[in-house]
Amino acid sequence: MPKTGWTSDWTVGIRVWVERSGEAVLGEGRAELLAAIDLERSITKAAKTAGMSYRRAWNLIQDVNAAAGEPLVEAATGGRQGGGARLTPRGRLALDVYEQVRQSLVESAAGVLQRSVAPNRQASALLHLAAAISLQEAVGQILAEFALQQPATHVRAIFGASNELADHLLAGAPGDVFISAEPAELARLGSAGLIVARSRRVIARNGLAIVGSPAMKWVTKIGDLKSAKVRRIALAEPACPLGNYSRQYLESVGVYESQLPKVLHVDNSRAVLAAVVSGAADVGIAFSSDASRRGAWQTLSRIPTSRAAATYEAAVVGRGHQHASAKSLLEFLVSPSAARCLRRCGLRPAKT
Question: Phi and psi dihedrals of 124, rounded to 5?
């Protein structure tokens, strides 16, 4: 049981900042704005995402650039969208370093706190979370934040393709919360009586991106896939959510059937990236969150979320015996803390 004296309204907070010559360059709020700019490529949209006015966001950009001694954000004023913006190479590096240091400290603190407050895992609450593999990085961050708030609850995460995870749950595998990249998989569990009534919640949305090697940077739109210079296209298997979304989008723009001879089917989004890096494919379609990670690939074009996007939904699984703790975890998945983790990983949190 938790150590006497630690109560549910006690939490641990981590504050990290990057300085230059004693002046703060990045802190939590500024880093959140930079992450939103990197995702939205628009000051207006980034400000709305970060919960601040356009004027406040613009002033913060000026403060960040001044403190850094060089631009971390390049912005253009005016226009119907209120100005576009992007991170400079130094800005992306600064944000990556900030997030890596911060996440490392959060994970370390969460582990120490759990060992101190609830050293006996068998005596504490244990939840099984099944989640789409494209959420692996984001869920890892969210669970570390969750542990700082509820250290007496341990969560064991299992990642995989949404359809395979649903199959395992239907076959009797342990599960308390399920996050699917395909709402139909939750519907399947619901039909089998395995979803707690009214527990389904939309968590986030994930766009699609065309990725390739730097040599393929001339591929800037979907029609370029028809070029003879594109010899192999990596797509996820149609049975998995990414493959289904990719096929539907390519069919909607009249490209799918004509390019089938070029298609190399792989297991999931990260396998698409691996195929591009290895040279097995010239280009591929991956989830935007995976494409945003640092690696030996290049994001050639982003497909508008209005045309193709994955919607992640979560629900409490009815077979579990930790319904109260599972509902608590489900609520945390749509909290502001979780939303920040999702944005850091290139996902768009659901509006709450």
Answer: -100, 170
Q: How far apart are CA 247 and CA 282, in angstroms?
A: 18
Regarding pTM above 0.85, the answer is: no
pLDDT band, very low/low/confident/very high, at 313 (cuts 50, 70, 90): very high
* Integer angstrom CA distances of residue 233 from 221, 227, 228, 285: 14, 11, 12, 8
Report the distance separating Cα 208 and Cα 231, nearest Å: 21
- Give a yes or no: residue 255 inside a domain: yes
φ and ψ at residue 93, rounded to 5 degrees: -60, -45
Question: Is 202 within 8 Å of 312 (Cβ atoms)?
Answer: yes
Q: Using an 8 Å Cβ cutoff, are 66 and 46 in contact?
A: no
The CATH number covering residue 26 comes to 1.10.10.10
CA quadruple 268, 270, 272, 278: dihedral sign: negative
Mean per-residue pLDDT, 75-88:
68
**Cα→Cα distances 246→112, 178, 219, 273, 284, Å:** 42, 23, 17, 14, 10
- Condensed to tens digits (0 to 9), the pLDDT of residues 252-295 reads 999 999 999 999 999 888 899 999 999 999 999 999 888 877 78
* pLDDT in the model for residue 70: 94
250, two tokens = 């390519």
Domain count, the chain: 3
Q: How confident is the model at residue 81 (pLDDT cuts 50, 70, 90)?
A: very low
The phi, psi pair for 281, rounded to 5°, reads -140, 150
Token pair of 246 as six digits: 């990719």
Tokens of 319: 């077979």
Q: Which domain holds residue 27?
A: 18-95
The token pair at 66 is: 């001044």
Which tokens in the block code for residue 344? 């850091």
